[in-house]
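ok new one. same drill as before - structure tokens go in, u give me an amino acid for every spot. 339 of them this time. try not to just spam alanines like last time pls lmao
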């Protein structure tokens, strides 16, 4: 066994047997912002064999205060987060195979993404994606670990389909838009990210090494500034839950409305194409150059016009900055990219 894991092997909860299991385990990290960064680093250092990392965004300067996977250079070069994370993980642990995917997670890819994974970690910043993960994981019997943080507050819960309550057993509906605090309105400090991610990763280690009896079995809430730590009993899976009791997975059905999303903390909207497509950046740059400033690298094209900035990916997905109105963003998208 590789010497680098000796201290972890000494820990009786892991041991040689547990380490061997980690080396052949596969984890999906959905969203590689602050939580995803912390999860990815911990799991790579622990020797998890395969990390699939999915994120739709690119690195920006405002990320660097808490998203520990990224450097100033990543922000300057606007590297997609999944790619930047995979590059850094290669330096941290060359034995961990990383599979970065620059994509929006939605009904069309979630079931493929979770397939073959031993556990799924929530690194997202929105409830829509969490219900999507919950539906796919309950449908396929995959364990997943919910986590969220804003301000100095964080929450996490481990979902083992049909063994424990699922996300929808606890929260039947997502809180209405604009009702909850976001990193935009309340900010966020890094320590709460570390706490939530540490609990998520520990739970994942227990699952991967076969110690489900050690799982905390709670809805854990922490406020690291107000010194409030709570462990709430989520109860049994609800007999009325549409997801785990009735087996209805509404978020996995196609719905055009899913194709626009307000991005947390960015004054930006993401628009996805209604049909799968691939964009040639040089051709598009040629076309857009008449209307504004265009730059592109291997992963994305940036187009700046008077009031808006568009970042366009190969799959035609775009992040439109300068508005928080979906209708405005859609019309900008239609104008410059077409739909
Ligand atoms: Zn449920």
């Amino acid at each position: 066994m590789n010497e680098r894991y000796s201290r972890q092997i000494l820990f009786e909860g892991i041991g040689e047997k547990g380490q061997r299991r980690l080396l052949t385990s596969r984890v999906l990290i959905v969203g590689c912002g602050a939580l995803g960064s912390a999860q990815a680093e911990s799991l790579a250092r622990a020797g998890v064999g395969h990390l699939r990392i999915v994120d739709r965004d690119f690195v920006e300067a405002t990320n660097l205060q808490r998203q520990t996977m990224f450097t100033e250079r990543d922000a300057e070069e606007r590297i997609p987060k999944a790619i930047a994370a995979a590059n850094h993980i290669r330096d941290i642990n060359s034995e961990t195979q990383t599979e970065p995917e620059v994509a929006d997670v939605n009904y069309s890819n979630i079931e493929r993404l979770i397939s073959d994974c031993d556990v799924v970690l929530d690194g997202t910043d929105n409830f829509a994606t969490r219900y999507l993960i919950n539906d796919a994981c309950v449908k396929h019997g995959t364990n997943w670990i919910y986590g969220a943080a804003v301000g100095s507050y964080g929450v996490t819960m481990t979902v083992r389909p049909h063994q424990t309550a699922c996300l929808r057993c606890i929260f039947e509906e997502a809180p209405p838009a604009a009702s909850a605090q976001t990193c935009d309105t309340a900010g966020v400090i890094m320590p709460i990210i570390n706490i939530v991610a540490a609990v998520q990763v520990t739970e994942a280690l227990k699952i991967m090494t076969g110690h489900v009896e050690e799982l905390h079995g709670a809805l854990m809430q922490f406020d690291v500034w107000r010194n409030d730590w709570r462990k709430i009993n989520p109860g049994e899976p609800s007999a009325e839950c549409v997801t785990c009791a009735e087996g209805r997975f509404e978020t996995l059905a196609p719905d055009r409305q899913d194709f626009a999303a307000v991005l947390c903390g960015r004054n930006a909207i993401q628009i996805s194409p209604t049909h799968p497509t691939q964009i040639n950046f040089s051709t598009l740059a040629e076309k857009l150059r008449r209307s504004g400033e265009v730059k592109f690298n291997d992963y994305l094209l940036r187009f700046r016009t008077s009031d808006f900035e568009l970042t366009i990916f190969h799959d035609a997905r775009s992040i439109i900055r300068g508005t928080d109105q979906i209708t405005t963003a859609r019309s900008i998208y239609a104008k410059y990219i077409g739909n």
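Residues 27 and 51 are 5 Å apart (CA to CA). and btw The mean pLDDT is 91.
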